[in-house]
Design brief:
- The longest helix is centred in the C-terminal third of the chain and has 48 residues.
- The strands form 2 sheets. A 3-stranded antiparallel β-sheet has the order 3-5-4.
- The chain has 3 domains: about 70 residues, Multidrug-efflux Transporter Regulator, Chain: A, Domain 2, CATH 1.10.1660; about 90 residues, Orthogonal Bundle (Multidrug-efflux Transporter Regulator, Chain: A, Domain 2), CATH 1.10.1660.10; about 55 residues.
- The protein contains 9 helices and 5 strands; from the N terminus they run E-H-H-E-H-H-E-H-H-E-E-H-H-H.
- It is mainly α and about 220 residues long.
- Helix 1 crosses helix 2 and helix 5 crosses helix 7.
Length: about 220
């Protein structure tokens, strides 16, 4: 018994447009010559595609995997055991309120990196990386470039990664260098904070005047 595109989208909890995109990449098995009707196997194929998307793969990447080795059964995989404390890129994106493309881009820039890969090639991240990504996003709000953020992360990486070198392993020269760099950053943060407060006060002052005038006009 075949499935309509709407039945399949309801079963997989995705939109009909997404189903159409998956079909464009030949990731689903449709009835011969019918783009809106699918064979029963399409349900299992769709669940596999959806899982790969959650893991951070793009449709063209999923197609390559399918063409080269086939899409493995992602349910009940033995290698998933022991990974409960790690996050896929999809889970990391959800918890950090970022999209997967941004995380991949930051990974390419060396700002974040997976702790390991599964046998299937899935990237796994630490739970601490959620806080790390939020920190990177905060630094961008201060107009730091990714290059500058990379330098800053070297100074504070021990706050996000418990396996990083301890201070006991650092030379006196390196400790002094990091100390002065952090002091400079702190001074800059104070300047930004003071500037933010001044700007906020001005906005509040103007807003109070506007609200006062607005109430007068409402009474008339």
């Amino acid at each position: 018994m075949s499935l309509t595109i709407h039945e399949l989208s309801k079963i997989l909890d995705v939109s009909a447009q997404e189903i159409t995109e998956w079909l464009h990449y030949e990731l689903l098995t449709s009835e011969h010559g019918k783009k809106d009707f699918f064979l029963p196997i399409a349900e299992e194929e769709g669940r596999g595609v959806k899982k790969f998307i959650e893991l951070g793969y793009e449709l063209n990447e999923i197609k390559k995997i399918q063409r080269n080795v086939g899409l493995p059964n992602l349910k009940g995989s033995k290698e998933s055991k022991g990974h409960e404390s790690l996050l896929t890129i999809g889970e990391l994106a959800e918890k950090s309120s970022l999209n997967r493309r941004t995380i991949k881009f930051w990974e390419e820039k060396g700002l974040v990196k997976p702790i390991k890969r599964t046998d299937g090639g899935f990237r796994l991240f630490r739970k601490d990386d959620v806080e790390l990504l939020v920190f990177i996003k905060d630094l961008q709000a201060f107009n730091y470039t990714l290059s500058e953020i990379g330098s800053i992360l070297k100074l504070v990486k021990g706050e996000f990664n418990k396996d990083d070198l301890l201070l006991d392993d650092m030379s006196l020269e390196l400790i002094e260098k990091d100390m002065y760099s952090l002091k400079y950053l702190m001074e800059r943060m104070v300047e930004i904070r003071d500037a933010t407060l001044r700007t906020e006060n001005l906005f509040n002052k103007r807003l109070r005047k506007i609200l006062k005038f607005y109430k007068i006009l409402k009474k008339e």
